[in-house]
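User: Last request for today: this protein with thymidine-5'-triphosphate, please.
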Amino acid sequence: MSGQRKIIHVDCDSFYASVEMRDDSSLRDVPLAVGGDGGRGVVATCNYKARAFGVRSAMPASEARRLCPGLVMVPPDMPRYRSVSQHVMGILRDLTDLVEPLSLDEAFLDVSDVTEHRGSATLMARYLRERIREEVGITVSAGVAPNKFLAKIASDWKKPDGLFVIRPDDVADFVRALAVEKLFGVGKVTAAKLHGMGIETCGDMQSVGPEVLTERFGKQGYRLHEMAHGRDERQVVVARVAKSVSVERTFSQDLPDRSACETVMVDLVAELERRLARKGGSKPIHKLFVKIRYSDFSTHTLERVREQVAVPQLDDYLPLFRELVGETDRPVRLLGLGVRFRNDDAPVTQLRLFD
Ligand code: TTP
Ligand code: MG
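Assistant: Here's the final one, the structure of the complex with thymidine-5'-triphosphate:
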């Protein structure tokens, strides 16, 4: 490993609720929860006004209402949260390719080799928070540290709308006072066991030593020992880049002829466009392809290089389809279409071996 790493962890504040407040000004000054409001509804998240009443994620809606009688509840709108998430992740990826999303609203960045912002991870985190606030219209909290586990703790430290930095020189002092509950993987059960051993902080854990911890907790014990010393070698792992995106549909009743297929392709093209927006981003397209399965289960595909299309339309696929099926009308069981991306930039992966 080459020297000290610089990791940023970014986590949007009360994410679903923040999106709702952004898009509807009447929700900005009220205690707000997002979730199912019915008899068995559950709170997905809530804004910080509602948290002041004790409302929390995963709480039954009925309990949330009891704690906070003025609570406003709205149903979740996942497509909108996904699109806001893409916007946020796009801003992060502008800074570096080494972005590892953990969910819609949080990600790790390895900025060790970024030279912009004078190479300062603190300045980078400030810049990201500012840009997301201005361009997306929501607030995010960020943590900066020499590794993932500390960066994640740091982003939580000053939430909401906060930034907290743990410099390499601060790590020893920081972890010594850190409650074991804050450690990754330490839930109620492990915490209770540790307390039973007289261990409240990482400092306490340091004095116990790795043998005792491994004996008591198995493999997790060693990780606890490492974290108690502020160590975590896990790399930021960038997801493998999609090589293709496609949609296909199997019909409960075979499509009788070519014109029926062409009608269905209108829907498939629309679905492909949505999926491309989600998965493909703005990657350049290399090929288009069409797949067909006849009622006798024989399957055929045809692909053609088409580099000029940005978002493929029905007219881009019809020639391929017609070439593939020829003149005969045979009943069709499955129809699919898709794109393959140009593969000239090697995928940025930093795969590593932890756990
Ligand atoms: P979190 O980041 O855990 O929570 P949050 O963004 O709402 O609040 P904050 O980070 O400021 O503490 O989760 C992100 C989103 O995931 C959250 O907005 C809603 C969803 N979620 C659920 O649907 N159910 C849950 O139990 C949790 C914890 C989150
Ligand atoms: Mg969050």
